[in-house]
């Protein structure tokens, strides 16, 4: 298996674990909140933790969504084009995502740094850890876009979504 596909599998695993963990925290927090409301009042920290979990759910899930084609995508134009032009359009799209991710990284770093001077009101956590979700999102989006570009240029990826369907997995194995 080519190096870029091995790297993609590792990042996919990391994102799946991160997404699952964030979803688990979200589920637990909301459950505590609902049960708390049922018996009187819910702990104040549950709403804050729910928001933080949603941020990390989006941060880890966005890279996966790019890989599987689940991000909002207007592919009517690409589907109507001859195959070489559609491939080029998908390559340019991945390049635009990579450039945008890289361009926003410095702003996300500054945003994360600001969090060092703040704490969350209910949990008392340093906001650096919460603001870092934007860094995680941009970094993973950039990684998956770069892997898509690399794979397309090497002929291992046609720019179509690389989901978990048997056909997609067989395609990855063949190339």
Q: If you compute it from the alpha carbons, what radius of gyration comes out, rounded to the nearest whole angstrom?
A: 19 Å
Order of helices and strands: HHHHHH
Oligomeric state of shown chains? single chain
* Beta-strand residue fraction: under 5%
Alpha plus pi helix count: 6
Helix content: over 70%
Describe the structure.
The structure is a single chain. By secondary structure, the chain is mostly helical. It has one domain (3-160). Helix content is 77%, strand content 0%. The chain has six helices and no strands. The protein has helices at residues 3-39, 45-68, 76-80, 83-114, 127-154, 166-174. α2 runs parallel beside α5 and α4 (83-114) packs antiparallel against α5 (127-154). The radius of gyration is 19 Å and the shape is elongated. The relative contact order is 0.15. The model has no long low-confidence stretch (mean pLDDT 87).
